[in-house]
Amino acid sequence: MRAIFMSLALVILSSSVLSLPSERRDSDSALTEIQALNFALSLEHFQYHFYKRLYQYGPQDFSNAGLPPWSQGRYAQISSHELTHAQFLENILGDKAVQPCTYNFPDTDPRSFVKTSNIVEAIASSTYTTLAKYLSDPDYVISISSIHSVEAKHSAWINADVREGAAWSTAFEAPLSLSQLYTIMSGFIASCPSSNSLPPVKTFPALTFPSSVMPGQTVQVSFSPAAPKPDSQTLYAWFISGFKALVVPLNADMTVTIPDTLQGFVFSVITDNRESVSDDATVAGPAFLVFDYDYQGNDQSLPM
């Protein structure tokens, strides 16, 4: 199985346009199994506390927003899943388990709730894809794989049934680094208990795109806080989808042309290295972008 994966990665790497770095040198490379499981628990706390917000919106609120009223009940089932996941991981970790943080989610109505849920589940699917490499205990591997499968189903349901978009992006999930994933999560975290033992991850400056973007557009991006760089240094915008990535130069005026071949979930990262999207090279991001497409592969970008 490992030989098959490596062969696939090498095929992707052979292209000068589509690439997946062969060596990430990420800051989370020395993660222990306990730290990996606690990262999963941090994610499940994050998800459950988001889905608790569902109960301020009733089925009629969903209907008034032009969404299926029954979707409120499905979201309630997802909320129950996330609580079960958190309790399961807490039982494994015992007194080593991290506690929930205080969160700041942006939803104010059912539509913004759906939009945020899309991001939350995209983070989850990528996180469990990445966590697999830190686990050696077969029971842990099975447990994480089982949770991953359910999270992927959540994401597919939100995109296909609620958003009426594409249920998947590519044949593979994007394996972002834990630092990149935690950077996205941190945008929704106000504070965490001082007793929590954090894994060795970095938090990068937030990368912001305009609220409505499409493949082929030239748009201006921003970092918050701005990441300093020498005037002579060229930065690069990476667009990661599954095991593939497109990299283009970031212009001096902070504009970038979004590749017109992108589809589905895309994570964009700004780096100072055209050959690497490792943590050491990351300047800002990731930003989460969605480019929906129809059953024939035609662009069908939606407002959320």
Automatic annotation (TrEMBL):
Ranges that cross the membrane: none
Signal peptide limits: 1-19
InterPro entries registered for this protein in UniProt: Ferritin-like_SF, Rds1
Keywords annotated in UniProt: Signal
Superkingdom, natural source: Eukaryota
PANTHER family according to UniProt: PROTEIN RDS1
Protein name as catalogued: Ferritin-like domain-containing protein
Protein source organism: Suillus placidus
